[in-house]
Amino acid sequence: MDKTVLTLPHEEIEAIQLEGLKKTLAAVYEHVDFYKQLFDEAGFDPYGVESLDDLKKAPFTTKQDLRDNYPYKLFAVPMKDVREIHMSSGTTGIATVGGYTDHDLEIWGECFARGIEYADGDENDICHVAYGYGLFTGGLGAHYGSVNMGCTTIPMSAGNTERQIRVLREMGSTIICCTPSYAMHIADTAIEMGLDPEKDFHLRAGIHGAEPFSDNFRAELERKLHYKALDIYGLTETMGPGVAIECMEQTGLHLAEDHFIAEIINPETGEVLPDGEWGELVLTTVDREATPVIRYRTRDITRILPGTCACGRTHKRIDRLHGRTDDMLIIRGVNVFPSQIEDVMETFTRVSSWYQIELTREESLDIVTLKVEPDPSFDLDGMRAIEKLQKEIQDALRSALSVSIRVKIVEPKSIPRSEGKAKRVIDKREGIK
Amino acid sequence: MIQQITVFLENKPGRLAALCTTLGDAGINMDALTIAETSDYGLIRIICDNPKRAQEVLQQENYRANITDVVAVSVSNKPGGLAYLLNKLDDLKLNIEYGYCFSFKGETAFNVLKVEDAQAAEAAIVNAGYTVLEQKDL
Q: How close is the nearest chain B Cα to the Cα of A197, in Å?
């Protein structure tokens, strides 16, 4: 892994970006019908780009564009050069496809390996990959990263939690890569089995992504597993995990700026926002060969953090994600992200870390119900204790989010545990999808 | 003083039957059971022959089961028996959080009371001339 690129002066990173952008624009214009038509219709000249600022003139691409061109119409290289395919889960429609040449796989491994470097890791680490292997980018992305760094890689995939725990103990895994909700499930299960992760595990760091998790959820993970939990961001449409990763400072995720150009836009107007302002993240690939994307609207809400990181690396950072515009709940006119609800709920030790948000409609009113489970330590002998807890959570939610949310205490383990991405929101409103 | 098991159940069909089946299969015999319910959930309070084992069995099956100390006072099973006891407790300034009664063998009734400091309350009740049940009496 090349560490020197992580501390290059920012002008040199920008020079890499501009050179890559010019090549990428020419490649997609010449090899992908969709981009030729898109640029021509927008009056955008892909050969006229002289500075990174000129990228603003290019039109956006959306998830719908990727779906419309399913499966191969966005590929910019002949199939003989495509080495691997990944697909998004397609839970909200047709899957989106990413193709990888040898070079694309190489940079993917390199980008994920930065996460291990950020976790102060090296080839002495034993890297336990508990993301699902397969079309999902989590498993193989982490695998390539671990191999790239030269770690000892344990390709567990997700599931069979008791076996995960046995391997964590017996093989001495030092870094674990999985979704944050699965890390929590592993931690809870280990504790229930009577283990003490501090003594029985050897974990130093976790690289967790594929779903947003709140600061309090992170604190809970770190308390249970005695390690540092680092946030990793990525999406199949641009590569997979590794687009941006936190360092040990835990003050934002360093973008892999030599491979991706990030912009933040106002999702309503498309206007590019200055550093520091929250908006939708838009990504352009700098050197992706098989499926490059130009100004792809991720629908993820974040901001570019101004200033430099205390770790000394020069790649800009994005803030931890609040969630996707798709996940955002509009409750009686107020925008709420599930992670904000999670943040409030995590301050209550009388409930477990598992929750589910249920949306229903009564007459014409949207009703939001937060289901939580009592923690084993909570003495729930009296009705008053339960009612008091419900009321305290409801009050805390109202003061933090300005909306009223019903809190329902449900039986332990009745909220499904996830091995991959947790399903936090159940929408039972008819006619709304 | 006796130990009561409190189980948190969602208010859904079949949950109470499942709970009782779990206890029955484990060979646990119940002497009393009451339900306090809301539209969402209920608290099931149980007096049984082996509360520790009942709690273990229930937790294994993912129920949330707590053990609570309660006082079981015996009074004579005739009109005014409970009223007399409650007036006495009032005189002793003992506040009851909840309670329930059961009787067997005809002559006597038992009043299970949740009070703040079960140990001290039980001593005061005994001092006032009442008989209280111990786990072994069940």
A: 21
What sign does the CA torsion over A323, A325, A326, A327 have? Answer: positive
Residue type, A378: F
For testing contact with chain A, the best of B19, B34, B40, B95 (most A CBs within 10 A): B40
B118 touching A, CB under 8 A? no
d(CA A340, CA A330): 13
Helical pair A215-225 and A338-345, crossing angle rounded to 10 deg: 50
Are A303 and A286 a contacting pair, CB within 8 Å? no
pLDDT of residue A433: 38
Residues of A in contact with B97 (CB under 8 A): 382
Span A268-305, pLDDT tens digits: 899 999 999 999 999 999 999 999 999 999 999 899 99
A132 touches chain B (CB under 8 A): no
Q: pTM of the prediction?
A: 0.80
Instruction: Determine the Cα angle at B9 with ends B6 and B13, to 5°.
Output: 140
What's the length of chain B?
Answer: 138
Whether the CB of A391 is below 8 Å from some CB of chain B: the reply is: no
- pLDDT tens for each residue of A4-56: 999 999 999 999 999 999 999 999 999 999 999 999 999 999 999 999 999 99
Burial per residue of B42-78, b for 16 or more beta-carbon CB atoms within 10 angstroms, e otherwise: bbbbbbbebbeebbebbeebebbbbebbbbbbbbebe
Is any Cβ of chain B less than 8 angstroms from the Cβ of A414? yes
Q: How far is B114 from chain A (nearest CA, A)?
A: 10
ipTM, two decimals: 0.77
Answer whether B62 sits within 8 Å of A379, measured CB to CB: no
